[in-house]
Amino acid sequence: MIEFVSSDRCVQCTMCVKVCPTNVFDLGANKIPIIARQEDCQTCFICEAYCPVDALYVAPYADPLEVAPTEEHLVDNHLLGSWRETIGWGKGRIKLAAIDTTPFIDRILPVRRLE
Ligand code: SF4
Ligand code: SF4
């Protein structure tokens, strides 16, 4: 569930507002997004993936955290934009698809039998 927007990092691109499929954000003062409807979050991580400056944190739980995280905690634990980093989005990062070894093609092709 979306937990945090860093107003320090945000560059007001409004991308997270546009890509969120359930309209969780409103634009606040200075075009910095506000988590206006956290309960509508689907934990899809799309906003975090699209944020160009790693200003968002989506926790991997469907329920809100019991204690709202602070920016200091998120920065110290390298959590802001951590999912985006995991999937390799962002300059200089290795895309997850490039290192994925899941044998997908073997699962969709028919089994080859020796004659
Ligand atoms: S995780 Fe998905 S549903 Fe939740 S705020 Fe981000 S884009 Fe919206
Ligand atoms: S995508 Fe990131 S930089 Fe852009 S408005 Fe949202 S939080 Fe700010």
Automatic annotation (TrEMBL):
One GO MF term: metal ion binding
Question: According to the lineage, what is the superkingdom?
Answer: Bacteria
Question: What UniProt keywords are attached to this protein's entry?
Answer: 4Fe-4S, Iron, Iron-sulfur, Metal-binding
Coiled-coil positions: none
Q: Name one Pfam family in it.
A: Fer4_9
| Location of the 4Fe-4S ferredoxin-type domain | 1-30, 31-61
Q: Does the keyword Flavoprotein apply?
A: no
Q: Which Gene3D superfamilies match?
A: 3.30.70.20
Q: Which InterPro entries match?
A: 4Fe4S_Fe-S-bd, 4Fe4S_Fe_S_CS, Fe-S_Ferredoxin
Its name, as the record gives it, is Ferredoxin family protein
Q: Which organism is it from?
A: Cohnella herbarum
